[in-house]
Amino acid sequence: MDDAKVLQLGQVARVSAGYPLRGSASTLPDGGVHFVQLQHVDTDADIDWSAVPRVSLPSKREPHWLTSNDLIFSARGTRTLAYPLPNVPGPAVCAPQFFVVSPKQPEKVLPEYLAWQINQRPCQEYLAQRATGTTIPNVRRQALEEMPLAIPPIEAQRTLVDLWRLSRNERALLSRLIENRKQQLDALAFGLLQVAERQKI
């Protein structure tokens, strides 16, 4: 980590807007393009591709197709998080509420590493301080591009990404354990109630 360099996001990645859409995505006809919207992402930086609709894009203009070397960043609202795209299932674009962040040299700067660092407290505090708007906070492209990042060598990036994946897996496992315990306690409560009711008869 002693070899990490402090660089602005715009120095290591290109930031572009999501697919421009004037109306609602729900009005788009069915097609073959995955259209990622805010409701398809969660706080663990995952995308539920099974819920992402496939649409036909209204414009003939060639869009920015999402790839595994990109990440998307939710620029509007209270969850200014980055989402890596390791498994894009086919042609895909994202809604205009996102920015697409594309590392200029993905062999030197991992997209998942950028997503991890953007989602950590120092960057989140930076984004909160520079968000505009009172009702719905909004992060402008310039603020995102000027965000300072620590870029270590690629092996250190891989290590941090592996730790992030492990942490996410642990949270998912704990969530399942908590839900299983809740179901057990609910079942016990129902069972006790049934026993008590039978004893009244």
Structural class comes to alpha+beta
> Would you tell me which CATH topology applies?
Adenine-n6-DNA-methyltransferase TaqI, Chain A, domain 2
Sum up the overall morphology in one term: globular
Architecture per CATH nomenclature, i.e. the level-2 architecture: Alpha-Beta Complex
Q: How are helices and strands ordered from N to C? A: EHEEEEEEEHHHEH
List unreliable stretches of 5+ residues.
none
Whole-number average pLDDT? 89
Strand order of the largest sheet: 2-8-5-6
CATH superfamily: DNA methylase specificity domains
| Helix fraction by DSSP (H/I, runs of at least 4) | 25-40%
Q: Enumerate how many helices there are, as a single number.
A: 5
- Tally of extended strands? 9
Q: Report strand %.
A: 15-25%
Summed up, the domain count is 1
Distance between the termini: 71 Å
The CATH class designation is Alpha Beta
Q: Keywords, please?
A:
201 residues, alpha+beta, Adenine-n6-DNA-methyltransferase TaqI, Chain A, domain 2, 3-stranded mixed beta sheet, 37% helix, 19% strand
Helix and strand layout, with pairings?
Layout: E1 5-8, H1 9-12, E2 13-17, E3 30-36, E4 54-55, E5 71-74, E6 82-84, E7 92-94, E8 98-103, H2 111-118, H3 121-130, H4 141-145, E9 148-151, H5 154-200
Parallel strand pairs: 3-7
Antiparallel strand pairs: 1-9, 2-8, 3-4, 5-6, 5-8
Explain what you see:
There is one protein chain. With 201 residues, the protein is α+β, with helices and mostly antiparallel strands. The protein has a single domain, classed as Adenine-n6-DNA-methyltransferase TaqI, Chain A, domain 2, CATH 3.90.220.20. Helices cover 37% and strands 19% of the residues. It contains 5 helices and 9 strands. The model has no long low-confidence stretch (mean pLDDT 89).
